[in-house]
Amino acid sequence: MATAPRTSTLDRPPPDDLGRSARRRHGLFWIGGLVAALAATIVLAVCIGAVGLSPATVVRVVGHHTLGVPATPDWSAPLDAIVWQVRLPRVLLGAAVGAALAVCGVALQAMVRNLLADPYLLGITSGASTGAAGAILFGFGAGLGGNALPASAFLGALAASLAVFALARASGRITSLRLLMAGVAVGYALYAATGFLIFASDSAEGSRSVLFWLLGSLGLARWGVPLTVVLVVVCATVVTLALWSRHLDALAIGDETAHALGVSPTRLRVRLLAVVSLCVGAVVAASGGIGFVGLVIPHLARRLVGAAHGRAVPVAALVGAGFLVWADVVARVSLSPRELPLGIVTAIVGAPFLLLLVRRFHHTSP
Predict the structure, then answer these.
(1) Domains (range + CATH), the chain
(2) How far apart are the two ends of the chain, measured CA to CA in Å?
(3) Alpha carbon of 195 to those of 168, 188, 192, 260: distances in Å?
(4) What confidence tens digit (pLDDT) does each residue in 21-69 have?
(5) DSSP string over 30-84
């Protein structure tokens, strides 16, 4: 009786290759699903507000402005303005800011080898807050017109990152601990500077505006240079960190492993600091200080697709984008017609997650 030919072991991929292939398919499955979910999220978020809209209407309005279809709109001018001028820029900015904070959190946690690291860690957010407070309360950058606030915030974030780099470099080779300590020191100093500016101002309305901005808001989102800059910077950051994923893997394991793999930890940390500083500075300048996104989302991404940064970076970007869009929807509608600061919503979600993380560390620590 004829028997089926036996398959040679040489025709089968090695077990490690099988595992790597399965992990790659798993990562692609999540990335594809999250891309579809983010597209649906953007459409639904534009629909929700004081004036409810149908997804079909939103798609038609966006299609008219981007593709010219239909050629002649059959909806009212106010509805067109709500979709195209008010809600869509805000939703896109929220997606960009969420993606940026999430991937920067992934990079920072690898850079300083600390699972509690986030963009607040290096004082960049505090620097942006100081610049924004100066613009709102004392008219810094008044010659820039409507771009004075984001420009001042970005310059403050850039100055903070340079200060962190100088302090970490002054004591010798840049290490995780030195970056961490320098970031904390600069952050507290700039937090005090922002408080002093608020206290020194005699404008109650200006102080209220600064406090609202410090808690995060997407209310400044409009078509124009600031939104375009944020979208370009965020896309470039995600692509850059994805290309550096193997280096991030080595750095997260330890400096000795990185050296053994031909990666210079000091040079890589300098590059990461520059990329993260520019990205966080750009998004914080547009949205204010939004906490917990850069802390919570990286852990969630690693739970979904593992610790390898080649998968964790794009998944974190997609999850962070969707998370912040829905957080902004809650901020817009929960106390309508008033708007809740976005940082409050992210803290409500992030604080319990942090407690769960602490509990997990408690059970896994020896």
Answers:
(1) 34-354 (1.10.3470.10)
(2) 60
(3) 25, 11, 5, 46
(4) 787 888 888 999 999 999 999 999 999 998 999 999 999 999 999 999 9
(5) HHHHHHHHHHHHHHHHHH-SSS---HHHHHHHHHHHHH--SSS--S-HHHHIIII
